[in-house]
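Table S2 (continued). Query chain:
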Amino acid sequence: MEKEIIIVNDGSDDGTKEVLDSIKEQRKNMGKGQAIKKGFSLSKGDHVIIQDADLEYDPDQYPKLLEPLL
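Corresponding output:
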């Protein structure tokens, strides 16, 4: 399965900002909704999974989640 990863930092304090700062300059915190919209606008895939940095959802469950869609 081809995968695309889009990371949108929205001011989390888990170290994401520092990692992304080393890649590209960050913008002002606009809220999670705006972060999701930005990610959707950059996505090229048919299906999108939103994953917060705190791993609220288990990435090991993604295949099961996507199975009915594929």
